[in-house]
Amino acid sequence: MTFEEKVDLLRGVLTKSFQAMVDMGFVRLDECKGGFAISADKAKELSARGLGAAASIDDSSGKPVMYFDPGMDPKGLVWVATHEAVHLAQIAKGDFEPSFGYVLWKGQRFEGLDASDPNYFSKDHQPWEHEAAKIEKEIRKQIGLGSIDAALESVDH
Ligand SMILES: [Zn+2]
Predict the structure, then answer these.
(1) Rounded CA gap, 68 and 47, in Å?
(2) Domain residue spans of the chain
(3) What is the pLDDT of residues 13-46, one digit of tens each?
(4) What is the per-residue pLDDT across 80-136, written as a single tens digit (0 to 9) for each?
(5) Which DSSP string do the residues of the chain spell out, in sequence order?
(6) Which domain of life is it from (predicted)?
(7) From the CA of 154, how far away is ligand 1's center (Å)?
(8) I need a labelling partner for 101 at 20 to 30 A (CA). Which of 10, 45, 58, 109 fits?
(9) 130 CA from centroid of ligand 1 (Å)
(10) For the chain, how many helices (H) and strands (E)?
């Protein structure tokens, strides 16, 4: 799969995920109007932190942006996109503001934990991750990851 095909795949999954989150009442359509960006610019920083993807706020446009490692395989990308989609929606809603070394969640400052920390998905330590873990499951149910798997089978990679 080429780089462009991976970006297209991510755009498709993120768009479906946003539709699912609007349908379930997690985010309002007008909050999604600004859209989102997809970038592989931070691949080095991601792999240094042991991550395949991350959501942030684009410095120049102020839009929610999903950074990803283009070395990931298509199935891995689909999986992480349903998780990062929740963070993009949290950013669009104004709940989640990732910054350098810390996070603002609903106006409260939290220190970001390492991906291997046992409290990573804890409601008390990283409530944005706790919420994302819950919502991503709903998204996967709603968008039917099976149909995406079938679509991937038809792509040469
Ligand atoms: Zn996360």
Answers:
(1) 10
(2) 3-151
(3) 999 999 999 999 999 999 999 999 999 999 998 8
(4) 999 999 999 999 999 999 987 799 999 999 998 988 899 999 999 999 999 999 999
(5) --HHHHHHHHHHHHHHHHHHHHHTTSS-GGGGTT--EEE-TTHHHHHHTT-SEEEEE-TTT--EEEEE-TTS-HHHHHHHHHHHHHHHHHHHHTSEEE-SSEEEETTEEEEPPPTT-TTTT-TTT-HHHHHHHHHHHHHHHHHTHHHHHHHHHTS--
(6) Bacteria
(7) 29
(8) 10
(9) 8
(10) 5, 6
How many angstroms separate the alpha carbon of residue 146 from the centre of ligand 1? 22
Q: How much is the pTM?
A: 0.91
Angle ∠(2,65,48) on CA atoms, nearest 5: 75
User: Residue 39 Cα, ligand 1 centroid: separation in angstroms?
Assistant: 17
In one-letter notation, the amino acid at residue 147 is: S
pLDDT greater than 60 at residue 50: yes
